[in-house]
Amino acid sequence: MTKSQNHFSLIERMKTILIVVLTLSTILLLYFFWKDSSTDHSFELSPVVAILMGEELYVPSVEDVVVPQEIMVNFKYQSGNYTVVDTGKEKYWKKAVEELGQFSNESNIQVKEIPKDQYDQIMEFRSIQFTFSYDLPFAEFCDRFQIRRFQGSDAVQYLSSMGYCADKNDSLFFYDRKNNKYYRMFVDKSKEKWKNGFDEMLDEIENGGDYVHYLPASSYMLGTDEKDPENNAFMPLHFTSNLKTFTYAPEFKPGETDKINNLAETFYGKNFDFIRRLTESQGTMIFMYGYGQKVLIAGTDGTLEYKEEASDETSEQSFFGAMDTALKFVASHGSWYIDEGSKEDPQVILKSATLQKDKAKTYRFSFDIALGDHPICIQNGYAVVIEVTGNQVTYYKRNMMKVNSAEVLRNLKMDEKTETVDAVNTIALNYDYISKFLMKQGIISASTSSGKDDQKTPYLKDIVDAMSSIQTGYVKDQSSDKVVPAWIVNFSNKDNTKKCNLYFNLYRKAKAEPIGYNGANGRKSSIK
Amino acid sequence: MRKQGLRIIAVILILLFSTMTAFAASDPAVTIVNPADKIYTDNLLISVKLTKPITIRVRVDEYVKVNSDGTTSHITDTPKDYKPKEVQLVDPESFTGTGSVSYYSKQINNIKPGAYVIYVDTMGSNGDVKYTSTKYCQVAASKEKDPDKIFEEDQSSTMNFFQSILNAIFGK
Predict the structure, then answer these.
(1) Does the pLDDT value for residue A64 go beyond 70?
(2) Nearest residue to A229 (alpha-carbon basis) of A480, A483, A427, A21
(3) Does A184 reach chain B within 8 Å, measured CB to CB?
(4) SS3 for A125-183, per residue?
């Protein structure tokens, strides 16, 4: 062959190789971009593509949203000196998980079930407790948060609380609310005591500045001859706050067809192929695929509700896998943002997580949004409620709002704090209202009341028994455009099968008047 | 004689109907929920429950021993050979309850072991004291408690249980 023929042959060979490489790259790229569409039956861009195309898609991680509802600190044995961490919970919980991870790497860890009495006694010493409002499957929690599963750790089915006692620092203590069991995990005493960061955490909270003194509700409200109540929520002695009322706008109003259609497109695609659209006289819009296999309802109150028939009820997914699915779904169907102009990631809180009994392996997650660590509660529900069956989202209710979060956060940093109504007097002033509501919800009962001798306040001990926590936050007022600062009081019955929240105005001027509730079943209840 | 008898009757009647006699009586609308008679703590919580919208004044005094040099000491044992003196611990505070149930609460931090008394005066509209509810409280030093012992009892009873089984098996 001549030199030019060789040269030509080389060029052709290089072209062939280039074509093959380009073809393979295209196939790989298409696979990479479209692989997430199996999680949903409608076409959906993966988060990477969404970002490349300029869509800001914030997906909170499981680690971001799974945060204890309460972190309670006891500074010293019999000192009556307690506090509840108000801000920065994520930081302390993240540290606690790291410490648990280090603990799990110790050798010869023993796991022992202990009676409630021992758990309560050890927490009377210098200690810190992390308590969730839901129950996390412990084995899956260990896998997800990279905690080594050591021999005996499978005895703990659910994680509801984790506690550490500085005066017994060879151990960690756990509470499984679902099975009402307490556990102690401890390392071999003959070896050097496990070095940990919990003591630093306690020192930091104690020395970090003025902390608010908390005490058990029973100390304020019950006589000293009363038995310890079931829940014994911790209440601040006196409290100041700079939470202020601010305005919000619903995500959409009746008649805002463009906004509603934009949201609907994320479920059905741009062209709405095979989708029937109905508009009711009051303004509710309904989008239906087929004979109701997929239904989307845009309500006149700015809420969005989506239902999809489960296509494969035999498929299963883990608790955290289902939560991942839920978090991504919301991100791509409406987003987690409450402030379109904000560059800061929204603060998302998991409020409840349950396995639905009447549906095949369906997890139901409820989320709220927080501003500056203060949750924004929704009347009669949550900002997002979502059910995941296998890999599929089968129910999604969205009650989000639009606020100027930057302005609210700026005011939180700058505004001076003012006195609030005491937590104990918030309960006292509303004693009649609370007792009637809890009886209507079936959380307390007149027939089993333990306070019959107290003629003035016969249900007081029952109320203290049922009160599981009290904290400050915001409540979205559905009947106006205001979000109002409030005391948020959580109640539950003895076996934790019924729960509800009651909201009361935070400040003295408003005299702690009730401003709403979230009923035991998330449904509105009439009290009077 | 007759005049003296009339004077005595007049004094008795004045004492009977004087508001000052109410000074010693407790107000049924006031319950001192906390503290208990004896507590082991560094911080004293005072919690008073009111079942009427009344105004109260809360006073906290301490019983002390006056030493020969004029200084005072906390009383931690039964007084012998001296008479304790009652001194004001903190400034009195007023509180007005609202509604049918309300609470007054206050915490006195870093309190020393000793003998204390809490007075809750129910104030009239003229600033007079209509009732006084009283609670005596002994603050004792925190009881030493070994956290290890909480679990050791459990372990030793478990050991005793298995020991008894082994004894039964091997006849020891």
Answers:
(1) yes
(2) A427
(3) yes
(4) CCEEEEEEEEEEEHHHHHHHCCCCCCCCHHHCCEEEEEEEEHHHCCEEEEEECCCCEEE
Q: Write down the ipTM of this complex.
A: 0.81
What DSSP character marks residue A508?
A: G
Give A-chain residues touching B109 at CB under 8 angstroms.
81
HSE-up of residue B47 (Cα within 13 Å, Cβ side)? 25
Query: Could you say which of B100, B103, B151 has the minimum Cβ distance to residue A424?
Result: B103
The residues in A 430-489 lying below 8 A from B, measured between CB atoms, are 431-432, 456-457, 460
- Backbone Cα Rg of chain A: 27
**Which residues in chain B touch residue A111, judged by CB atoms under 8 angstroms apart?**
none
Specify the pairing of strand A347-356 against strand A374-378. Answer: unpaired
Closest CA to B45 of B104, B87, B132: B104
Q: Within 10 A of A147 (CB to CB), how many other CB atoms are there?
A: 20
Nearest to A80 by CA among B50, B137, B139, B145: B139
- A265 φ/ψ angles, rounded to the nearest 5 degrees: -60, -30
Distance CA B63, CA B86 (A): 4
Where are the extended beta strands (E) located within B79-165?
85-96, 102-108, 114-123, 129-140
- B27: DSSP letter: P
Q: Is the pLDDT of residue A137 over 50?
A: yes
Q: What is the mean pLDDT of chain A?
A: 86
Tell me how far apart the alpha carbons of residues A342 and B76 are, in angstroms, rounded to a whole number: 62
Residue A348 burial (C-beta neighbours within 10 Å; 0-12, 13-18, 19+)? buried
Please give the C-alpha separations between residue B88 and each of A324, A485, B30, B63, B85, in angstroms, as whole numbers.
Answer: 62, 39, 22, 9, 10
Would you say residue B158 has pLDDT above 90?
A: no
Residues of chain B contacting A455 with CB distance shorter than 8 Å? none
Q: Which residues contact A188 (CB under 8 A, 6 or more apart)?
A: A107, A108, A110
Residue count of chain A: 528
**A224: distance to nearest CA of chain B, Å?**
6
Strand, helix or coil for residue A407 = helix
- What is the spatial distance between Cα B1 and Cα A244, in angstroms, rounded to a whole number? 76
Task: Tell me the per-residue pLDDT of B118-149, one tens digit each, with 9 for 90 and over.
Answer: 999 999 999 999 999 999 999 988 777 888 88
Tokens of B112: 């020393």
Which pTM value belongs to this model? 0.83
A81/B contact by beta carbon, under 8 A: yes
Q: Which strand (E) or helix (H) includes residue A462?
A: helix A460-466
Dihedral over Cα of A512, A514, A516, A522: its sign: positive
CA A375 to chain centre: 10
What are the residues facing A489 on neighbouring strands?
A470, A502
Residue B25 CA from chain centroid, whole number? 16
How sure is the predictor about A50, in pLDDT bands with cuts at 50, 70 and 90? very low
Q: Render A238-270 in DSSP notation, one character per residue.
A: S-EE----EE-EES--TT-HHHHHHHHHHHH-T
